[in-house]
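A common beginner's mistake is to predict each chain separately and then try to dock the pieces by hand. The better habit, illustrated here, is to supply every component at once so that their relative placement is modeled jointly.
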Amino acid sequence: EVQLAQSGAEVKKPGDSLKISCKGSGYRFSDYWIGWVRQMPGRGLDWMGIIFPGDHYPGQSNVVYSPSFKDQVTISVDKSISTAYLHWSSLKASDTATYYCARWFVRGDPIGFDPWGQGTLVTVSS
Amino acid sequence: EIVLTQSPGTLSLSPGERATLSCRASQSISNSYLIWYQQKSGQAPRLLIYGASRRATGIPDRFSGSGSATDFTLTIARLEPEDFAVYYCQQHGSSPYTFGQGTKLEMK
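With all components supplied together, the output reads:
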């Protein structure tokens, strides 16, 4: 079974750094893009960015950020342990949200985010 | 960036009724790269429809998608109690792959 298992809930203070994780299993991790999606309390879904864990080609980036999140977070991956990460260097109260990772599924044509992780709740409060 | 506007914001219907949800794009979406997700309270979203009209694996045939270019529709033919949830559209015709703001389908 294809699964994405995310790290547990976090409570942090403004200015703290944080890295949350997303571990894939049940499929060849390096073959599919992994994306991150934010959901603020009571709000909709915000596409943050996406990363390809496999080998990329010279001159091509394997990470694409939404302009809204570029320079706000860092998306990375360690394919040796089938894990993607979302990192903040300095959290703000407005980063309080549930963060989902999801596999960008392609079967010939792109399909969409499937499956999704269970979500990681990040609470930033002084 | 493509902006997706979903309507209505909230739809109040009864089990057995037909639901029609709209997703309108600020510019044409190439290749009908439009996806629908369902999100139940406290759960992660679930993929329903991709390519505007193709049902994902395991999705009941009461769910159908249609549309092209800038106007897309998700139809639920006969609502079951488990269908009451929030529905989001997402485009992947151009980066960033934006989501609509969601339509809440609530039980009347």
